[in-house]
Design brief:
Layout: H1 2-14, E1 20-27, E2 31-38, E3 54-55, H2 60-73, E4 95-99, E5 105-108, H3 116-121, H4 133-142, H5 172-184, H6 188-200, H7 211-214, E6 221-223, E7 229-231, E8 251-252, H8 254-265, H9 279-285, E9 317-319, E10 324-326, E11 338-343, E12 347-352, E13 357-362, E14 365-366, H10 373-394
Parallel strand pairs: 6-14
Antiparallel strand pairs: 1-2, 1-13, 3-8, 4-5, 6-7, 9-10, 10-11, 11-12, 12-13
Helix pairs in contact: 1-10, 2-5, 2-6
Amino acid sequence: MKTAVDGLLKDAVAEGDVPGVVAVATDAKGTTYEGGFGKRVLGQPAEMTPDTVVWIASMTKAITGTAAMQQVERGKLSLDAPAKSVIPYLGEVGVLEGFDAAGKPITRRPRRDITLRHLLTHTAGFSYEIWNADIIKYQQAMGVPGITGCENKALTTPLLFDPGDRWDYGINIDWAGKMVEAVSGQKLGQYLKDNVLGPLGMNSTAFFISPEMRGRLAKIHHRGADGSLTPDMELEIPQQPEFEMGGGGLYGTAGDYLKFVRMMLNQGKSDRGEQVLKPETVALMSKNAMGDCKVSLLKTAMPPLSNDAEFFPGLEKQWGLSFMINNVEAPTGRSAGSLAWTGLANTFFWIDQKKGTGGVFATQVLPFVDTKALPLYLAFEKAIYDAGRQALAAE
């Protein structure tokens, strides 16, 4: 397996498909593959190594979702109670119906209350500006900043539909993070350190990039129309934010995230045997939690940041409590019912509890679902499954 996967990743770097890449895989017992190739920043000498720090972006969501579910376990949060009982603003947000002749938004009251379940499954009605032109229009009309600036006002965009009606990807988990803060009395980063990251040994994962982490940091690269890659030395999530972005603010390493993957493979236990989540909570998080709603294509409204996004087009997908679930087996070999998601700069993970395997892939490239990075990730995942099949056949 190591020879095959090393060759796949080395060739991709040599071809200029990605500036650098780290990929890791695990079973329930421990790491089964680890590799890093290419450069952290094109034009600079630092190599992409397994301990390289990257912006994991929306891979943050599953970690924040874990924090929320810990609070459900402790009786501080409820999946189906009105979220406004914890965050009053969530009882005031309206559903966008359009814009008047002057360009001002027209909203109405939602037909039902937002719940934590809605937030964790992206069925509350919130969206991101990256994939919705009406959100961009609302932001411009009302002076609302973009989400990655981590200003509280960025969370004041309206709903696009009534809670529970359908799926749309947006600022939901940021609000779940705010709910964790409200009931724990801690800032989200400190809560995560004490209750999730620390117990899992994820010591190189945080909202704040420490000087030690910064020494291992890879930079985001933009792909030009001609396919070339250019590093962006300025793009970074604010390091003194108004709010810590539970939907996408974490920096970390692929190896750290693999510890989280392994926890989900081991019924909530860390590598040290500490119970981070109860087994029944892991099971609850790992099954469809959105009724008949389905995950749909995300059509880009901001092409420099994202291409159109859908994983395994044509295969039915739903959402658990902070994970995408593929309802049928994926072409890579990923089992039906597996968990997965991704981050904007083309970081990816999957958790296959049936086959007892999972992995993490990290590069730092925009736009999202990059034409070279996404196929490379899928090829990496398939190579891990192919190796597993070959090992079984040899026994």
